[in-house]
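User: Here's a structure from my thesis project, written as structure tokens. My advisor, Dr. K., wants to see whether a designed sequence matches the one we expressed. Can you design one independently, without my sequence as a hint?
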């Protein structure tokens, strides 16, 4: 994490077109437990609901890392270009709950090298979902091998406290 200025972006909103709107709402709102924030309908069959998913982040992975995630999290089952990941308090319990609500389990919960418990499901509207439960606090995870910022990587892969002394 960096001490950067506040972001001018206030919200990330992922928009999913669902042919079976009611099934998708029931899965994400009623089974996953995302509370309804707003809903609109201008008439006819036109409907939209905005569900509150808590804090949002945008994870950008290069193709090699995406393949690594697929290997660790789903036994190599390839994920689509975009996949939704939800941090939950109980990956095992939520996996069973969503399976009971019509989710298709792609991969059972597994502990990842980055110390989270992840499962993968197929959800309504053609969406693939990862459920993850952090097993370590972010400060504990940040000191594990492989964790650094892009700035640290560009500057030689060392965290500020680990940088070799300047020479010259």
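Assistant: Designed independently from the structure alone:
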């Amino acid at each position: 994490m960096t001490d950067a200025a506040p972001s001018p972006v206030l919200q990330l909103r992922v928009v999913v077109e669902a042919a079976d709107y009611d099934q998708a709402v029931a899965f994400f709102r009623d089974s996953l437990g995302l509370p309804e924030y707003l809903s609109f309908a201008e008439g006819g069959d036109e409907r939209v609901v905005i569900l509150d998913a808590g804090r949002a982040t945008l994870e950008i992975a290069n193709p090699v890392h995406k393949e690594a995630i697929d290997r660790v999290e789903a036994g190599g089952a390839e994920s689509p270009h975009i996949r939704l990941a939800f941090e939950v308090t109980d990956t095992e319990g939520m996996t069973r709950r969503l399976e009971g609500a019509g989710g298709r389990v792609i991969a059972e919960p597994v502990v990842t090298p980055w110390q989270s418990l992840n499962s993968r499901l197929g959800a309504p509207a053609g969406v693939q979902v990862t459920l993850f439960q952090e097993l370590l606090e972010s400060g504990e995870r940040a000191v594990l091998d492989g964790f650094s910022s892009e700035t640290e990587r560009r500057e030689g892969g060392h965290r500020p406290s680990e940088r070799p002394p300047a020479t010259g």
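When you compare it with your expressed construct, this may help: Residues 158-168 have pLDDT under 50 and may be disordered.
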